[in-house]
Each structure stands twice: as C-alpha cells, then as structure tokens.
Amino acid sequence: MLIDTLTFALSAACLAMLRLPTPVPAQRSSFVADLREGWVAFRSRRWVWAFVAYFAVVNFLWGAWSGLGPIVAERDLGGAAAWGTILAAMGLGALGGSLLAARVKPHRPLLFAVLADGLFVLPLALLAAAPPVPLIASGAFLSGAGMALAISVWESTLQRQVPGQSLSRVSSYDWFGSLAFYPLGLAVWGPVAAIVGISVSLWLSFGLAVLVTIALIGFPDIRDLRASAPVPASRADGPTP
Questions:
Q1: Element (DSSP H or E) covering residue 54
Q2: Rounded distance between C-alpha atoms, residue 87 and residue 90, angstroms
Q3: Per-residue CA distances from 134 to 80, 87, 100, 137 (Å)
C-alpha cells in the first residue's frame, strides 16, 4: 500500500510539471445542462453505450472472482499465500498489457479490445475447477494483461472518436456505467454461492461472461469501427465549453 501511495505521489509530481496552453474561457452552463448534453452525446453513439453496457455486466460478474476467490483459496488452495500469488500474477499481467498497449495499433480497435478483454473469463473457469495454484496464476496473468490492454485501447479509441468538447462528459458516463454494478456483484455472488455452491456460481459467472462477450462481438458498430476512419461529430455534441 505504501509503494502504491508513492506511485500516486510520483504521478502528481509529473502532472505538476506539465505546461499546458491557456484554456479558452468556458461558456457558462449549469450542472444539469452539462449532464444533459453529456447524456445526449453518450447515447447518440451506439458503439459507446454498447461497450459501456458490456463493461457494466462483466464488472458485475467479476464480483464472483473478488468475493468467492478468497474463499476458494482458503478452502482448496492453501490460504492467503496462494491468493496473494494469484493476485500478484494478475498485477504483473496488467503491467505487461499496459506496456504492450503502447505498441499495438489495431485496425479494428473495438473488436481487438473485446477479444483482449475476453481473457478475463479464464480465472473464473480455473477458479471453479480449482486446479493447482500455478495454473490459476497463469490464467490470472493472461486476464490481467488482456484487461489492461483492452482498457488502454478502449480509452484511446474514445479519445480519437469523440469530439473534444464532449469527451469529458462522455468519459464520465463511461466510468459511471462501467463500475456502477460492481458493488452489486460483490453483494450478490455470496448469497448465490450459499444457494447453488461456490463452484456452480463461478461457472455461472464464466458462462454469462462468455455470452456477453460473444453478443458484443456480434454488434456491428463494435465489429466494424476502424481506427483510420474517425466517427463524425454529431450535432448533439453541443457547444464547445
């Protein structure tokens, strides 16, 4: 935790050294008007809200991993040391995926992001099967790499395709929608496991995640969006702030 805190301090220092141009004075608008304009810009892009809906569902399903994983580790894998090893492998995978994201230039970025993020389902299946810790850790490594790579490609695509005057508002709806149901997932999967069992709950989460991923791949706006063809700004984007 201390090391993590120091990394945030380093990030703050780097941000403090940035020299940005003087911004253009913003037009006055109310908070409600900003919310409304952001919502119109968000919903007018089907590829945005489809991907955010996908993130919302998979983060809900990921609650099974976060809530039930420590129980499986304690019961079947050897306790805290095993779970710590698995989470460390996921963190290393995320680091590797982040570094790789700086080099990849996918022709169809959203399709690439869906396929990369689809790796997140591996640990759910492995945890349900309860194989040896190294195998689960390997799946967690691939999952972390895929998630970090997918998020990086998604965010860069959002920045390229959404006009600057709407980007912050669309991004706010993106983060809100993507994470809103994760706490619910943490609350739900424990009672579900108490009824149907931990292994069945993890397999259920895995199966639903696969179905959601396949459904998103089948969405034309996700499959066909190309990096070389920016989406034109909608009239609904509103005035430049």
A1: helix 46-72
A2: 5
A3: 14, 12, 23, 5
Segments making up each domain of the chain, as ranges: 48-161+179-224
The CA-CA-CA angle for residues 198, 199, 205, to 5°, reads 90
Closest CA to 216 of 118, 69, 87: 118
C-alpha distance from residue 208 to each of 90, 205, 224 (Å)? 21, 5, 24
Q: Which residue shows structure tokens 């706010």? A: 172
Q: How many residues does the chain have?
A: 241
Residue reference for tokens 């580790």 = 73
pLDDT digits (tens, 9 = 90+) for 134-159: 999 999 999 999 999 999 999 999 99
pLDDT of amino acid 229? 55
| 57 vs 51: CA distance, rounded Å | 10
Query: Could you tell me which CATH number the domain at 48-161+179-224 has?
Result: 1.20.1250.20
What mean pLDDT, rounded, does the chain reach? 88
| Whole-structure pTM value | 0.81
* CA distance to 56, 58, 59, 118, 177, per residue, from 180 (Å): 7, 11, 9, 20, 5
What is the predicted pLDDT for the residue at 25?
63
Output 235 or 49, whichever has higher pLDDT: 49
Residues 118, 145 contacting (CB under 8 angstroms): no
- Region of 170 (left: φ > 0; alpha: ψ -120 to 50; beta: rest) is alpha
Question: Three-state DSSP class for 239?
Answer: coil
